[in-house]
Specification:
Low-confidence stretches: none
CATH class: Alpha Beta
Helix content: 25-40%
Number of strands: 10
Mean pLDDT: 89
CATH architecture: 2-Layer Sandwich
C-alpha cells in the first residue's frame, strides 16, 4: 500500500501572481474571497423530469456537483493545495459533501462523504453513489468515518485543534497517510446545501487542516422573476433559480480564472443533455 496521502504533481510555470499570493498569506485563515452565482435551473429540471422513474433520486446538489467537477477538470489550478510555499495539484477531482443523516432512532446527525472523480461521473451516477454512502452512514457501516469520529471523541477538547492541525501537516505538507484517517478526505471542494434551512445566501470559512481551496454553499432553489432575451425581444419570466455561494482561497484563484469557472458552470446548466451524462469532454467547455 502506498504511503502517499494524495497522488499529486507540482504546478509547472507558477504565474507571478501565485508566487506573490503564496508569499503574502501563510494559510487559508486570511486569503478568503467570496462570490455568489445565480444559476437558472429551467433546463436542468426539465432534464431531471425526463429521467427514468426507477432511477436514483436526483437533486440540485448532484447537478451542481457534476458542473463543479467538469469546471475543476477544465481549469485544474483550483484543485490543489500548498506545501512548503509551492502549489501542488490533485490528480483526481474529488468533492466532499456535508449532509444531514436521519437515523432509525429519529436523531439527525451532520455527516460528511467524499465522491471521487466527480468529473468522470454523470449526474445519475453521482446521485446513486451519494445515496449509497448516506445509507452506509445511517446504518453505521462507514468504518472510516466511525474510526475518525471515535478518535476525535477520545481526545480532550483542548487537544482537538492541535491534532487536526498536526494531521493536516502530516497529510499534506509531508503527504503521508495517517492510520485511521481516509486519504485526502475533503478533496478539492466542499459542498453544503443550506437551502434546506431556508437560506439563499450564506458563506462558510475555509478549513485550514482540510487544504480545500473552494467551499460552495447552495441556497434554496426558488421561483424568481428573470429577464429573458430572445429574437422576440425582452420579457420577464418566473424561473427556478439557485444561488452558489463560494468561499475561495485567493492564493489559487484570481478574477480571470474565476470568470472561466463561472462560464463553464453556466455552460453545463445551459445544455444538461450533453453535460449531465458521462463521456462529455470538459476540454470543450
Amino acid at each position: 500500500m502506498s504511503l502517499r496521502n494524495v497522488e499529486i504533481a507540482p504546478l509547472r510555470r507558477t504565474p507571478p501572481f501565485r508566487k506573490i499570493a503564496i508569499g503574502t498569506w501563510t494559510g487559508p485563515g486570511d486569503p478568503q474571497i467570496y462570490g455568489t452565482l445565480e444559476v437558472d435551473l429551467t433546463r436542468a429540471l426539465a432534464w431531471r423530469d425526463r429521467q427514468p422513474a426507477d432511477g436514483p433520486r436526483i437533486t440540485v446538489t448532484h447537478m451542481v456537483a457534476r458542473a463543479l467537477g467538469l469546471a475543476m477538470r477544465r481549469y485544474p489550478d483550483l484543485n490543489g493545495f500548498i506545501r512548503f510555499k509551492r502549489i501542488y495539484l490533485r490528480k483526481s477531482v474529488d468533492i466532499f459533501f456535508q449532509v444531514t443523516v436521519r437515523h432509525d432512532s429519529g436523531r439527525n446527525d451532520l455527516a460528511g462523504l467524499r465522491i471521487t472523480e466527480v468529473d468522470r461521473k454523470g449526474v445519475a451516477r453521482i446521485a446513486e453513489e451519494m445515496a449509497a454512502k448516506v445509507e452506509r452512514v445511517r446504518q453505521r457501516r462507514d468504518t472510516e468515518l466511525q474510526k475518525t469520529s471515535k478518535m476525535l471523541s477520545m481526545l480532550p477538547g483542548w487537544l482537538v485543534g492541535f491534532f487536526l492541525n498536526l494531521s493536516g501537516f502530516v497529510s499534506y505538507a509531508l503527504n503521508l497517510r495517517l492510520p485511521g484517517i481516509p486519504p485526502d478526505q475533503f478533496g478539492g471542494c466542499m459542498v453544503t446545501n443550506v437551502g434546506s434551512m431556508g437560506l439563499d445566501v450564506a458563506y462558510a470559512p475555509l478549513v485550514p487542516y482540510a487544504r480545500t481551496p473552494l467551499i460552495i454553499l447552495l441556497g434554496e432553489a426558488k421561483r424568481r422573476p428573470v429577464v429573458v432575451e430572445d429574437e422576440e425581444g425582452e420579457r420577464i419570466e418566473a424561473r427556478t433559480i439557485v444561488t452558489l455561494n463560494a468561499t475561495i482561497d485567493h492564493r489559487f484563484c484570481d478574477g480571470a480564472l474565476l470568470a472561466k469557472m463561472v462560464r463553464a458552470i453556466q455552460a453545463v446548466f445551459a445544455d444538461p443533455d450533453r453535460w449531465f451524462e458521462e463521456g462529455a469532454d470538459p476540454a470543450e467547455l
